[in-house]
Amino acid sequence: MKTSKTARCLSVLYMFLLLFMTTGCADKYLVLNPKGPIGEQQKDLMILSTLLCLIVIVPVLILTFVIVWRYRDRKGRKAKYTPEWEHSTALETTWWGIPVVIITLIAIITVRYTYSLEPSKPLESKVEPITIQVTNLDWKWLFQYPEQGIATVNYVQFPEDVPIRFEITSDAPMNSFWIPQLGGQIYAMSGMAMVLHLQADEQGEYMGSGANYTGKGFADMYFTAKATSQEAFDQWVSEVKGTSAALTLDGYKKLAEQGTSDVRYFSSFPEGLFEMTVTKYAASHNHGLSVKARKEVRIEE
Amino acid sequence: MAQTHSNAEHHGHGHEHPDQEEMRTFAFWIYLMTDVILFATLFATYIVLQGNTDGGPGPKDIFQMNGIYASTFILLTSSFTSGLALLAMHKGNRLALMNWLWVTIFLGASFLFLEVNEFMHMVHEGATISTSAFLTAFYTLVGTHGLHVALGLGWMIILIIQIAKHGITPVTKRKVNIVSLFWHFLDIVWIFVFTIVYLLGVK
Amino acid sequence: MWDKAKEFASEFFVTGDPLIYGADVSIALTLIAIVSVLTYYKKWGWLWREWLTTVDHKRIGIMYILASVLMLFRGGVDALLMRAQLAMPELQFLPAEHYNQIFTTHGVIMILFMAMPLMFGLFNVIVPLQLGARDVAFPFLNSLSFWLFFSGAMLFNLSFVIGGSPDAGWLAYPPYSDKTFNPGYGQDFYIWGIQISGIGSLMTGINFIVTILKMRTPGMTLMKMPMFSWSVLSSCIAIVFAFPILTVTLALLFIDRYLGGHIFTLDGGGNPMMYINLIWMWGHPEVYILVLPAFGIFSEVAATFSKKKLFGYKSMVFAMMIISVVSFLTWAHHFFTMGSGADVNAFFALSTMVIAIPTGVKVFNWLFTMFRGKVTFETPMLWMIGIIPNFVIGGMTGVLLSVAPADFQYHNSYFLIAHFHQVIIAGVVFGFFAGLYYWWPKLFGFKLNERLGRLAFWLWNLGFYLCFMPQYALGLMGMTRRVYTYGWDKGWFEMNLVSTIGAVLMGAAFIVQVWDIAHSLKKMDREGTQDPWNARTLEWSIPSPAPFYNFATLPQVTHQDDWWEKKQRGWSAPAVELEPIHMPKNSGIPIIMSMFWFFSGFGLVFDWLWLAVPGFVGVLACMIVHSFNYKPDYYVPVEEVQRVEAAARRGSK
To answer: Any transmembrane segments, and where (chain A) (predicted)?
Structure first.
């Protein structure tokens, strides 16, 4: 058992190494460092479910170690040896019971959160939400602000403490829209307008990404999501309006071609561009998925 | 040594040679299960996509029900004649068995002929496999059934040759049993095709 | 003319990458080496008679295992290339296109062409021996299954040097895998490689269900059957239900690509989400198909090396059956973020969690098999013990992922990557390793080196934790899967570097294993290989390697763990009169038919009907020829049985 002993020492050593690395700097853990109500609740849920799991896992790990150690075969062993013992109703009921209880607990919590955190559910807030329409293109994100009349590429700005209603579609293979510090992701799919409600409680710049693989330029689909004060946001809008060019229909077609893109601003965009993108693919359906998309589009109209 | 053990005690059980023909029949039932899942998947796809005509022709525009009624009748009859073949086999009547199989083949071929005709007519009308999701799903589902029928026909012809060569033996018996099982199965699948694709389609 | 040929060649062969030229050269050299060695030693006839046309389940099993080790090497190199590219931010080692192809082939090869055949190899070698049977129910079909798998795997691997590799991920989600976005040949190689080998898997499923239900030796009732055979049964039931769905899904994708269909396309009314649903209806059970036999192996190993009966046999059987059924009801947990609504998400979250219950029960049963046992730590048992913490952690992160609203944050991140590698490597692959070390003496009739085995075990485990624990952290840092590079500003550098070091350690562990095999092959220690572990089940009652007919006379079983019971009673085999043994004849049809499948697949990839159509005609012709064969078997005369038995006893005792 010589090898295993040295190996055991080694494993302890590098467990410490791991611990050291994981405790390095907490800011890096975007998901565990949320800046909005949705991300906050999701973090709570993650921690809660982890703790519930650990209630079983930790004793099992200890038990494994104790059993393996205590019942190892060696000379002069005092521990009992019962080669025929293979069944105990009481014991087996116990360990059907323990996971059932824990899983039931996690299940109840999960179901409650599944309904309360349903992404299409509007957030409770005294402030009117702001709508931002997101289109996934190969390989860039187009953001349109229907209320402000401006558009941006690979950059999105919004006021803090204001619920944001993201409407998300795709004019390219399916992607996933994710701003980890604000909350979970949702797929960007053609022919549908997915709704995702998020909110930033703090000013700051947050990383946004495309989380679902779409090909060559996929790794370049990061964008910055910046939360500012309402005044700064309004000022930014008027700045974009005043200084940038307009996005024309032809311009959109060019933008939709495969390729990556820098941050861009547009003072306006073609009327109904987002709805057109959605219905372009939904039009071929008579029912099924398009019903949802149409309903959602209609709400907007 | 262990490898030389065993003794007289198990000779009475008759387990020494697992019955090959019975095992084959059993395996064929499992195969049919997998085919059920295959068709179930195709049906599910068809049901999801049947409304997605992309502005092209829908079920009502292209299905000609008279032909479908005729082919349904023909296929159901062929299932009956394959049953008659089985009866003849159990009576040990080799000639009747082969003749009923020929009748079944003839009916199956007529069914296929009608189906190919239907497809050709539809393609002629401009309703091809690449016209819309509905049509892709339609051709795939009905075509897969047709492919099964075609394979069944070839299989029966080969079987007739074997019966002519070997007569009615446990092996050919099992083969006829299996092929007729297959044929009844295709019949049942067709009833679903007929109902879900055609009857509900033109309703 | 010359220009035309050049143009064709540049499209046909993959060009422009030194890595691929290197592969071209090494493939050519290996082929030349194999061909010349076989020719020089005049071994072609031997190869054909003894291996390529064999219907012996043990040899087929060994060929499966060999092929899977080759594929493990290829998939492992893919993994190391990826880890090298990600070791530091903004590395230029692999361009995006190449990286995308590599993660795709890594996934496909590891799941379908490494884990599956390794599993089938163990099924083949062990199940008939455990059941006291002379072969599987359908030996011809079994050989065909293997050769179909092999053709599929070769077709898929060929894409590396001819036509170009697929790059749409291991499950090839449309619309990205549609012709519009993916016009190359790679995706078609993917479809036909998997399709052809998938037919083989389906037939193996049927074959083993019948074998287990109909071929057990007298006295072995279902509830006396060894746990590994039970696990194979539950896995095969899942195969039979899941694989037809894969067949249809890939066929539909091919119709879209080849005939311009619109099932999954963006235009024409297609529905890409259909594909995602269908592929996971197969894909999720597939994971359990792989892990159930590993559970069976743990059970056998735990009982053998604790010198104690398996605890809670009935619970174990019941748990596996629940898992194989419920695994069909959980597929949508792979895409909670599709926005199917709270009802759907809640349902699939719950069904996923339900699976954790029987899995947890199994862990407890293994623990209590060791409890009050006499635990020894030979290599197979080391793997078994090492797997428990590993699999328990992987299972826990699985439950975490199933919490639907939290999954919105885990999904598509490295957290997910770490989770499924933990259950697949630490559950499935380590499980199969345990099985390989355990049954190795039975398979080949010589023992592996314990020291090297232990070294490989520690290296694998150390490497595994180093590689994948940091990936959980990376996921929580927001690193998404399938990115070929990342910036310095992200703060992902340290963890990625550690992860790469872990991957290298696992690569080293693989080399140690190969070394172990080579070393032991040279030493050829045959001493006591008949029953080296003092084990419990029938396969250990016959010589190693088993004679081609397995059992000279079929054993009569009276107990669960019958061989152990017999040893306890001091039982010795009574002398009996041998009878001629009924055995299947070898057949060249499976390999020829699979070659025809290969040609049809290859023809369809390149849209060469002149090749595809004759290919299909050849397949049909092979079926017909086989159908006319009324003498597929023969009898082994008693004298030969006596001769083989005597020789075998000399060899392994």
So the answer is: 45-69, 90-115
Chains that touch A (3 or more CB pairs under 8 A): B, C
Check which CATH number belongs to the domain holding C545 and give it.
Answer: 1.20.210.10
Q: pLDDT value at position C515?
A: 96
Q: Rounded to the nearest 5°, which phi and psi values hold at B68?
A: -65, -45
Let me know if residue B5 belongs to a domain.
no
- Look-up: residue for tokens 């080391």? C382
Report the share of chain B in percent with pLDDT over 90.
81
CB atoms within 10 A of CB C442: 25
Cis preceding linkage at C488, omega within 30: no
Q: Which two tokens stand for residue A223?
A: 């964008």
Chain A positions touching C477 (Cβ under 8 A) are 28-31
**Residues 95-154 in A contacting C (C-alpha not used; CB under 8 Å):** 95-96, 98-100, 103, 106-107, 109-111, 113-120
**Domain span at residue C157?**
43-587+632-652
Q: Does the global pTM surpass 0.95? A: no
> Does residue B163 form part of some domain?
yes
Count how many domains chain C has.
Answer: 1
Which CATH number fits the domain that encloses residue B66?
1.20.120.80
**Chain B residues with CB-CB distance to A288 below 8 A:** 48-49, 51-52
Complex ipTM: 0.93
Tell me the nearest-neighbour CA distance from A289 into chain B, angstroms: 9
Chain B residues with CB under 8 Å of A284 CB are 52, 54-55, 132-133
Please state the length of chain A.
Answer: 301
**A58 touching C (Cβ < 8 Å):** no
Mean pLDDT value of segment B137-160:
96
Domain count for chain B, please give it.
1
Give B106→chain C minimum CA distance, Å.
21
Round the average pLDDT of chain A to a whole number and report it. 87
Pairing of strands A223-228, A155-159: parallel
Is the pLDDT assigned to residue A83 strictly greater than 70?
Answer: yes
**Max Cα separation, chain C?**
81
- CB < 8 Å to B132, chain A: 284
In the predicted model, residues of chain C with pLDDT beneath 50 are 653
Task: Tell me the C-alpha distance between A294 and A292, whole Å.
Answer: 5
The answer to whether residue C329 is domain-embedded is: yes
